[in-house]
Design a protein that fits this description.
Blueprint (H helix, E strand, L loop, with lengths): L1 E8 L5 H16 L4 E9 L4 E8 L2 H22 L2 E14 L8 E8 L5 H18 L3 E9 L4 E8 L2 H6 L1 H15 L2 E13 L6
Antiparallel strand pairs: 1-3, 1-4, 2-3, 2-8, 4-6, 5-7, 5-8, 6-7
Helix pairs in contact: 1-2, 3-5
Protein backbone atom coordinates (compact mmCIF):
# COMPACT_ATOMS: atom_id res chain seq x y z
CA UNK A 1 0.00 0.00 0.00
CA UNK A 2 1.17 3.55 -0.77
CA UNK A 3 0.38 6.89 0.87
CA UNK A 4 0.29 10.49 -0.27
CA UNK A 5 0.91 12.84 2.65
CA UNK A 6 0.00 16.51 2.32
CA UNK A 7 1.34 18.80 5.06
CA UNK A 8 -0.62 22.05 5.27
CA UNK A 9 0.42 25.13 7.24
CA UNK A 10 -2.26 27.79 7.57
CA UNK A 11 -3.38 30.77 9.56
CA UNK A 12 -4.85 29.06 12.65
CA UNK A 13 -7.98 31.15 12.19
CA UNK A 14 -8.47 29.53 8.78
CA UNK A 15 -7.72 25.95 9.76
CA UNK A 16 -11.43 25.23 10.22
CA UNK A 17 -12.02 26.11 6.57
CA UNK A 18 -9.27 23.68 5.55
CA UNK A 19 -10.79 20.90 7.66
CA UNK A 20 -14.28 21.59 6.27
CA UNK A 21 -13.03 21.46 2.69
CA UNK A 22 -11.14 18.19 3.21
CA UNK A 23 -14.32 16.67 4.63
CA UNK A 24 -16.27 18.04 1.68
CA UNK A 25 -14.04 16.44 -0.98
CA UNK A 26 -13.20 13.26 0.95
CA UNK A 27 -15.99 11.11 -0.60
CA UNK A 28 -14.87 11.90 -4.14
CA UNK A 29 -11.25 11.04 -3.34
CA UNK A 30 -12.20 7.82 -1.58
CA UNK A 31 -14.24 6.90 -4.67
CA UNK A 32 -11.09 7.02 -6.81
CA UNK A 33 -10.02 3.63 -8.15
CA UNK A 34 -7.46 2.14 -5.79
CA UNK A 35 -8.06 4.45 -2.82
CA UNK A 36 -8.22 2.58 0.50
CA UNK A 37 -9.09 5.50 2.75
CA UNK A 38 -7.95 8.83 4.14
CA UNK A 39 -7.03 10.46 7.42
CA UNK A 40 -6.78 14.00 8.73
CA UNK A 41 -4.92 15.14 11.82
CA UNK A 42 -4.10 18.67 12.92
CA UNK A 43 -2.64 21.00 15.51
CA UNK A 44 -5.21 23.78 15.58
CA UNK A 45 -3.11 26.04 17.83
CA UNK A 46 -0.32 26.42 15.27
CA UNK A 47 -2.39 25.90 12.10
CA UNK A 48 -0.83 22.63 10.95
CA UNK A 49 -2.81 19.85 9.23
CA UNK A 50 -1.64 16.51 7.81
CA UNK A 51 -3.89 14.88 5.20
CA UNK A 52 -3.10 11.32 4.18
CA UNK A 53 -4.65 9.30 1.36
CA UNK A 54 -3.88 5.61 0.92
CA UNK A 55 -3.66 3.61 -2.30
CA UNK A 56 -3.37 -0.04 -3.29
CA UNK A 57 -0.34 0.71 -5.47
CA UNK A 58 2.01 3.43 -6.60
CA UNK A 59 0.35 3.36 -10.01
CA UNK A 60 -3.11 4.00 -8.51
CA UNK A 61 -1.74 6.90 -6.49
CA UNK A 62 -0.02 8.37 -9.55
CA UNK A 63 -3.10 8.00 -11.76
CA UNK A 64 -5.22 9.94 -9.26
CA UNK A 65 -2.94 13.00 -9.38
CA UNK A 66 -4.72 14.95 -12.18
CA UNK A 67 -8.00 14.84 -10.23
CA UNK A 68 -6.55 15.41 -6.76
CA UNK A 69 -4.18 18.28 -7.62
CA UNK A 70 -6.95 20.91 -8.17
CA UNK A 71 -8.31 20.15 -4.71
CA UNK A 72 -4.93 20.92 -3.20
CA UNK A 73 -5.03 24.32 -4.90
CA UNK A 74 -8.43 24.95 -3.32
CA UNK A 75 -7.00 24.14 0.12
CA UNK A 76 -4.32 26.79 -0.41
CA UNK A 77 -6.90 29.41 -1.34
CA UNK A 78 -9.25 28.68 1.54
CA UNK A 79 -6.63 28.45 4.24
CA UNK A 80 -4.11 31.16 3.32
CA UNK A 81 -1.90 28.12 3.42
CA UNK A 82 1.27 26.47 2.23
CA UNK A 83 1.50 22.80 1.35
CA UNK A 84 4.14 20.16 0.76
CA UNK A 85 3.34 16.72 -0.67
CA UNK A 86 5.24 13.55 0.18
CA UNK A 87 4.82 10.00 -1.09
CA UNK A 88 5.58 6.83 0.83
CA UNK A 89 5.11 3.09 0.88
CA UNK A 90 3.52 1.37 3.88
CA UNK A 91 6.09 -0.77 5.71
CA UNK A 92 4.01 -1.76 8.74
CA UNK A 93 0.48 -1.29 10.09
CA UNK A 94 -1.03 -2.50 13.36
CA UNK A 95 -4.51 -1.69 14.65
CA UNK A 96 -5.74 -2.81 18.07
CA UNK A 97 -8.80 -0.57 18.32
CA UNK A 98 -10.57 1.82 15.95
CA UNK A 99 -9.87 5.50 16.58
CA UNK A 100 -12.54 8.18 16.59
CA UNK A 101 -12.38 11.94 16.14
CA UNK A 102 -10.54 13.54 19.05
CA UNK A 103 -7.97 10.74 19.36
CA UNK A 104 -4.37 11.75 20.04
CA UNK A 105 -1.75 11.28 17.32
CA UNK A 106 2.04 11.24 17.55
CA UNK A 107 3.90 11.74 14.27
CA UNK A 108 7.66 11.09 14.13
CA UNK A 109 9.85 11.86 11.12
CA UNK A 110 12.83 9.57 10.70
CA UNK A 111 15.79 9.34 8.36
CA UNK A 112 18.54 6.83 7.67
CA UNK A 113 20.69 5.72 4.77
CA UNK A 114 18.56 3.98 2.12
CA UNK A 115 20.67 0.83 2.44
CA UNK A 116 19.89 0.78 6.17
CA UNK A 117 16.13 1.11 5.81
CA UNK A 118 15.31 -2.58 6.24
CA UNK A 119 17.29 -2.65 9.49
CA UNK A 120 15.36 0.40 10.66
CA UNK A 121 12.02 -1.28 9.90
CA UNK A 122 13.16 -4.39 11.80
CA UNK A 123 14.21 -2.31 14.81
CA UNK A 124 10.81 -0.61 14.80
CA UNK A 125 9.00 -3.95 14.69
CA UNK A 126 11.20 -5.49 17.40
CA UNK A 127 11.60 -2.59 19.82
CA UNK A 128 8.69 -0.17 19.33
CA UNK A 129 5.66 -2.24 18.34
CA UNK A 130 5.74 -4.67 21.31
CA UNK A 131 5.21 -1.96 23.93
CA UNK A 132 2.79 -0.04 21.71
CA UNK A 133 0.42 -2.97 21.30
CA UNK A 134 0.38 -3.59 25.06
CA UNK A 135 -0.03 0.05 26.12
CA UNK A 136 -3.28 1.30 27.62
CA UNK A 137 -5.15 3.52 25.19
CA UNK A 138 -3.23 2.44 22.09
CA UNK A 139 -5.32 2.32 18.90
CA UNK A 140 -3.05 1.94 15.87
CA UNK A 141 0.42 2.51 14.43
CA UNK A 142 1.87 2.71 10.97
CA UNK A 143 5.32 3.14 9.49
CA UNK A 144 5.66 4.78 6.07
CA UNK A 145 8.97 4.73 4.20
CA UNK A 146 10.58 6.20 1.11
CA UNK A 147 13.08 3.58 0.00
CA UNK A 148 14.79 5.99 -2.38
CA UNK A 149 15.68 8.61 0.23
CA UNK A 150 15.70 6.57 3.46
CA UNK A 151 13.09 8.84 5.02
CA UNK A 152 10.24 7.54 7.13
CA UNK A 153 7.10 8.70 8.88
CA UNK A 154 5.84 6.83 11.96
CA UNK A 155 2.34 7.50 13.29
CA UNK A 156 0.75 6.13 16.41
CA UNK A 157 -2.81 6.90 17.46
CA UNK A 158 -4.17 6.93 21.02
CA UNK A 159 -7.68 6.82 22.46
CA UNK A 160 -7.59 10.47 23.55
CA UNK A 161 -5.23 13.30 24.47
CA UNK A 162 -4.74 11.93 27.99
CA UNK A 163 -3.62 8.51 26.71
CA UNK A 164 -1.26 10.24 24.27
CA UNK A 165 0.26 12.26 27.11
CA UNK A 166 0.66 9.18 29.31
CA UNK A 167 2.56 7.40 26.53
CA UNK A 168 5.28 10.05 26.14
CA UNK A 169 7.76 8.54 28.59
CA UNK A 170 7.59 4.94 27.35
CA UNK A 171 7.57 6.18 23.76
CA UNK A 172 10.81 8.09 24.35
CA UNK A 173 12.51 4.96 25.74
CA UNK A 174 11.38 2.75 22.84
CA UNK A 175 12.32 5.41 20.31
CA UNK A 176 15.82 5.77 21.76
CA UNK A 177 16.34 1.99 21.72
CA UNK A 178 15.23 1.68 18.09
CA UNK A 179 17.35 4.64 16.97
CA UNK A 180 20.43 3.20 18.67
CA UNK A 181 19.85 -0.26 17.20
CA UNK A 182 19.44 0.90 13.59
CA UNK A 183 21.42 4.16 13.25
CA UNK A 184 18.31 6.26 12.57
CA UNK A 185 17.97 10.03 13.02
CA UNK A 186 14.77 11.53 14.42
CA UNK A 187 14.07 14.71 12.45
CA UNK A 188 10.90 15.91 14.20
CA UNK A 189 8.22 14.90 16.67
CA UNK A 190 4.67 16.26 16.53
CA UNK A 191 1.42 15.68 18.40
CA UNK A 192 -1.96 16.24 16.76
CA UNK A 193 -5.67 15.70 17.16
CA UNK A 194 -7.26 13.13 14.85
CA UNK A 195 -10.27 14.43 12.93
CA UNK A 196 -11.01 11.22 11.02
CA UNK A 197 -9.43 8.05 9.68
CA UNK A 198 -11.01 5.65 7.18
CA UNK A 199 -7.87 3.69 6.31
CA UNK A 200 -8.42 0.07 5.30
CA UNK A 201 -4.99 -1.60 4.91
CA UNK A 202 -4.59 -4.04 2.04
CA UNK A 203 -2.96 -7.41 2.64
Amino acid sequence: MHARVSVVTADPANLGAVVDYVNEVRPSIEDEVGCTGMSLQADADVGLAVVMSFWVSGDAMHESEPRVAPRREEVLERGAATMSVERYRLADFVRSHPATGGAGVRLTRLETEPANLEAAVTAYEDLVLPWLTEADGFCSAMLLVDRRTGRGLEQNVWRDAAALADSRGPAAVARADAVAAADVAVRSLEEHRLYFSTVVPED
